[in-house]
Amino acid sequence: MKFKDKIRFIRQNIKKNKVRTFMTILATAMGCAFLIVLASIGYGLQKSVVEDTLEQQIVTQIDVHGQEDDNGNYRSLTMEDVKYFEEMENVKAVTRRNQIRQMPTFTLEDYQTSVAAVTAHFPSEKDSGLELAEGRFPESANEVIVGDHFSEYLALITEEDIYDEKTGMIKESFLYQESLLNKTVEMTVTDNDEVEHVIPLKIVGIMEEPTKEWLQDRNVYVSNEIYTEVEIFTGTPGGELGIEPEMYDATEEAEAIDNVKVYADNLEVVQSISDKLEDENYAIYSVVSEMNQINMLFTVAKAGLILVGTIAIIIASIGIYNTMTMAVTERAPDIGIMKAIGANPKTIKQIFLLESSYIGIIGAFIGVIVAYATSFLVNLGLPMILEMTFGEELPEGLQFSSIPISLVLISIGICLLVTIVSGLRPAKRATELDVLKAMRREF
């Protein structure tokens, strides 16, 4: 019997029991849809978390925090480490920053604020891909860049209450309203004797707004020469107050770097650079490492959800088993005739396995369509329901459900496998049917 004839025979038999077959297909479709929708939650949340992480962090950036020695202690990084990182293969740039260890006061005309001053090596910052919202990078020692939120803290010097009671922020009427570019701001630092030292600085650039909404960048980024000038004036490492110079190893403190970031040429080489640094006992963090952990967590979650969803298909397989068992009983005369004219038992078995597979494929196809429709409705309606219920706005771009092709193929594969297994026993019984009993409907 040709394959086309087998399919025609299966369709004819299915049409004889439309209602029963329809209910079996419906149960299979519901099980398949349940599996896909359930697992799609894991895929959707993973996609949202990964995209959010990638948007908020530079994927080629590796933070290096220090190096562990043989005794398990961590030492601060120095310029020797920076030079070593710069010589590594596939490294695009190595940035290094130090913070002045007191809160300088910055004055611009009649406006003043106290914010952190951070040293930056501007050539490496530029090579790393850092972009400015306005202006240019400093070219001389007394040129600086300010953070995007610096102007929101530069307030008028007055005895009036400048803070808004509701927001706790400085009232807009007291803020500096003009452009900061090319303006000279005076940075005032003090020593242990409260003697003041004023350093004039020219603002030549403004940083872009941080990618994370909750972050504020109000720092002033100064050159290493300014940092050294502050150290010479205070006589302490980083201009720190409240300590005596002899309490610290001046050489070691001067060489220490607070913040070092390594930037790879592209995403593909980040992992290899990270592995090499870890092998040399450097304490590092990279978004690639975080992605690996996140993906591992969601992989376990998705596997669990797929397993739970598979149970629904297994339950539906009971209906398939029942349908195929009844089909064997009802078609006993047909089976007897086929065996009487010399039909191979394998052919009879294939017919029933094909019928159960046919039911599974149709059920899976319908289930996929229902799953996509459900996923669309979940992503559209669930955020609105949650916002109305809890009164809180959800993060922009949050996706509750996502159905990739891989999930569809996995679900169809599971559905097809379960339906075939469900039809094995009835198909085997059909091949073992006695011809004479089948002809007399004594099966």
TrEMBL record:
**Keyword vocabulary terms for this entry:** Cell membrane, Membrane, Transmembrane, Transmembrane helix
Subcellular location(s): the record lists:
Cell membrane
Transmembrane residues, as ranges?
Answer: 21-45, 296-321, 358-382, 402-424
InterPro entries documented for this protein: ABC3_permease_C (IPR003838), MacB_PCD (IPR025857), Macrolide_Exporter_MacB (IPR050250)
Say where the protein is mainly found.
membrane
Every ABC3 transporter permease C-terminal domain range: 307-429
Q: Does the keyword Membrane apply?
A: yes
GO CC annotations?
plasma membrane
Any one GO MF annotation of this record? transmembrane transporter activity
Q: Which residues form the MacB-like periplasmic core domain?
A: 21-234
Protein origin, superkingdom: Bacteria
User: What Pfam families is this protein classified in?
Assistant: FtsX (PF02687), MacB_PCD (PF12704)
Q: How does it sit in the membrane?
A: Multi-pass membrane protein
Family according to the record: Belongs to the ABC-4 integral membrane protein family.
This chain's protein is named ABC transporter permease
Q: Which organism is it from?
A: Oceanobacillus bengalensis
- Could you read off the lineage of the organism from its UniProt record? Bacteria, Bacillati, Bacillota, Bacilli, Bacillales
